[in-house]
Design a protein that fits this description.
The complex is a heterodimer of chains A (about 190) and B (about 400). Helices cover about 40% and strands about 20% of the residues of chain A. In chain A, the strands form two sheets. A three-stranded antiparallel β-sheet of chain A has the order 1-2-3. Chain A has a three-stranded antiparallel β-sheet with strand order 4-5-6, with no helix packed on it. Chain A has two domains: about 5-135, Sufe protein. Chain: A (Alpha-Beta Complex), CATH 3.90.1010.10; about 140-195, no CATH class. Chain A has about 190 residues and is α+β, with helices and mostly antiparallel strands. Chain A has helices at about 5-10, 60-75, 80, 85-90, 100-140; strands at about 25-30, 35-45, 50-55, 160, 165-170, 175-180. The radius of gyration of chain A is 31 Å and the shape is rod-shaped. By secondary structure, chain B is an alpha/beta fold. Chain B folds into two domains: about 5-10 and about 260-390, Aspartate Aminotransferase, domain 1, CATH 3.90.1150.10; about 15-255, Type I PLP-dependent aspartate aminotransferase-like (Major domain) (Aspartate Aminotransferase, domain 2). In chain B, about 40% of the residues lie in helices and about 15% in strands. Chain B contains twelve helices and twelve strands. In chain B, the strands form three sheets. Chain B has a seven-stranded mixed β-sheet, with helices on both faces. A three-stranded antiparallel β-sheet of chain B has the order 9-10-12. The longest helix of chain B is centred in the middle third of the chain and has 39 residues, at about 240-280. The chains are: A alpha+beta (about 190), B alpha/beta (about 400). The interface between A and B is medium-sized, with 29 and 26 residues.
């Protein structure tokens, strides 16, 4: 057999095969021309990889490497997982034939790519949240009330049902005032053109 | 555990009578055929007897047979030996794109020497169009090489038709018969062929011995210089036991070929019709009818060949694959790519090649264990997941 016992064991009983539908990060490497393709899915909680799944199209080494990478990385922090090297994976597998070493490169690469994807999504999320905040502040509908009776108003140019006066938006401060009257907020008398 | 050997293309088992014929030459009959003494002459006679046996298999004259160390060496000798001998006539060579590497790489070597080497395209079954050969032959063309049959996809070429075109155009025609000779009848008198290669391990003879038929009157530049062995066309002390084995195997093949075919063809056909019925997205590679009697080759979509071979091996089944991962060089099969298959599909290559002695039970066993292996590997494959999503 060209492979070590450990490789064959992982090849026959690969751990963590599959897909995480709501993955926090996805990493895809390889293509059919080079022979192998791997996709890693990760789930992160409190900066730890709480779930890892993979799909692999490739040879025995590629499958064993994927399985081993998922096993090593499971439960590790993002920082620890990023430190997993190709060499480490090959060593854990009891060595790989020389011409199959590139498969071990793919394994760690796919995991790291999934983590990068996660980190990118995280920073994107933070940015989005920030952006959302500023947007919400700007567009938060101001509570408007009639300056004369303090009854609620739906819009700026409303007829106040409570005190039965017609209101308009003050061209100076943008708040409601009695149509054609002096603004009770800013005292402006200018009429909107 | 049950075992089934389905890797004819790698090597056929040595027939008991072949082994028996070889044994004395690995022991008591150790003489050098070039020696004048009785023990040398014994070996010499054995070699000449083997030469007659091989010649008889392809209906040539004994003196037209050159023993080599392998089919690869025979192909090298043909390509380089003929090109160098006829270089004053021209420098253009035509090789089919699905030739064995020993032919294609010999072509590359000749390119370095200044020859112009052109490859002939093949159709999706791996066949060269004889008309294409006719069109591609130039005034400078000296040699055309199209194999008899391809070992990866089993397709049999229209080698006779191509040979007649070459004869008409006065161009040499070499054909690689390694996968074909000993399994199907060959008569070199029935078509104008300049040279033809064959190898022992493809028809129940030993490995490490082959032969090149070179038509009488054809000049050949030797590649191994030295003594006068093989009429000065291939120096080096002979592999007497191997040659004796090759001769005995040729004798056996001539006698038994028809019986082998009768047994093997129904098994091949069972496999070819059953596997695609049991598993979705399985493609037969090579020609459905014009194929080697022992050959059933497929591409299993979405998974890779080496992973299949390892799983089959664990179940006691020996097979082959043309996938990139299986090859030491990690390159996809040039044969499958030349036939227009994409890389992903070529990765799913699997070749089952039968030997005399295989039974229906072997095929039944394969059909029992192989589909679950495919299912298991597909469950891991991102390509299969994509395919399934696409189907929804």
């Amino acid at each position: 057999m060209i492979y070590s016992e450990k490789v064959m064991e992982h090849f026959q009983n690969p751990r963590n095969v599959g897909k995480i539908e709501d993955a926090d990060g996805v990493g895809e490497v390889g293509n059919p021309v080079c022979g192998d393709m791997m996709t890693f899915y990760i789930k992160v909680e409190n900066n730890r990889l709480v779930d890892i799944k993979f799909q692999t199209f490739g040879c025995g080494a590629a499958i064993a490497v994927s399985s081993m990478v998922s096993e090593i990385a499971m439960g590790k922090t993002i920082e620890e997982a990023l430190k997993i090297t190709n060499k480490m994976v090959a060593e854990e597998l009891g060595g790989l034939p020389k011409n199959k070493l590139h498969c071990s490169n793919l394994g760690a690469d796919a995991l790291h790519k999934a983590i990068e994807d996660y980190l990118q999504k995280q920073s994107q999320k933070e940015e989005d949240e920030k952006a959302e905040k500023t947007v919400s502040e700007k567009e938060k509908p101001r509570e408007i009330s009639c300056p004369y009776c303090e009854g609620p108003l739906k819009g700026l140019e409303e007829y106040c049902r409570a005190c039965q006066i017609e209101l308009e938006e003050c061209p100076e401060c943008g708040l409601p005032r009695k149509k054609g009257d002096k603004c009770p907020h800013c005292g402006a008398t200018r009429v909107r053109v | 555990m049950r075992r089934a050997y389905l890797d004819h293309i790698a090597a056929t088992p040595v027939a008991p009578e072949v082994q028996k014929a070889m044994e004395p030459f690995l022991g008591v009959k150790f003489g050098n055929p070039q020696s004048l003494h009785f023990i040398g002459q014994e070996a010499r006679e054995a070699i000449e007897n083997a030469r007659e046996q091989v010649a008889s298999l392809i209906n040539s004259r004994p003196e037209e047979i050159i023993f080599t160390s392998s089919g690869s060496e025979a192909n090298n000798l043909a390509l380089k030996g003929l090109a160098l001998a006829y270089q004053k006539k021209g420098n253009h060579l035509l090789l089919s794109s699905t030739e064995h590497q020993s032919v294609l790489h010999s072509g590359k070597f000749l390119e370095k020497l200044g020859f112009e080497v052109e490859t002939l395209p093949v159709d999706s079954y791996g066949r060269v169009d004889p008309d294409e050969v006719r069109r591609a032959i130039k005034p400078q063309t000296i040699l055309v090489a199209v194999m008899m049959a391809n070992s990866e996809v089993g397709t049999i070429q229209a080698f006779k038709e191509i040979a007649f075109i070459c004869a008409e155009k006065e161009v040499l025609f070499h054909t690689d018969g390694v996968a074909y000779v000993g399994n199907l009848p060959v008569d070199v008198e029935s078509f104008p062929v300049s040279s033809l290669s064959l190898a022992g391990h493809q028809f129940y003879g030993p490995m490490g011995v082959g032969a090149l038929f070179v038509k009488k009157g054809t000049r050949l530049f030797p590649l191994v210089d030295g003594g006068i062995q093989e009429g000065g066309r291939r120096a080096g002390t002979e592999n007497v036991a191997g040659i004796v084995g090759l001769g005995r195997a040729a004798f056996l093949a001539k006698e038994k070929m028809k019986d082998w075919q009768k047994k093997i063809i129904p098994l091949r056909d069972q496999l070819i019709s059953e596997l695609p019925r049991q598993v979705e997205q399985v493609i037969l590679t090579g020609h459905p009818q014009d194929r080697l009697p022992y050959h059933a080759s497929f591409c299993i979509q979405f998974i890779e060949g080496e992973a299949m071979l390892l799983n089959l091996d664990l179940k006691g089944i020996a097979a082959s694959s043309g996938s990139a991962c299986t090859s030491r060089a990690l390159k996809a099969s040039h044969v499958l790519l030349a036939m227009g298959l994409d890389h992903a599909l070529a990765q799913g290559s699997i070749v089952f090649s039968l030997i005399n002695g295989n039974t229906k039970e072997d095929i039944d066993y394969l059909l029992e264990v192989f589909p679950p292996i495919i299912t298991r590997l597909r469950k891991m494959s991102p390509l299969y997941a994509q395919f399934k999503e696409g189907q929804k």
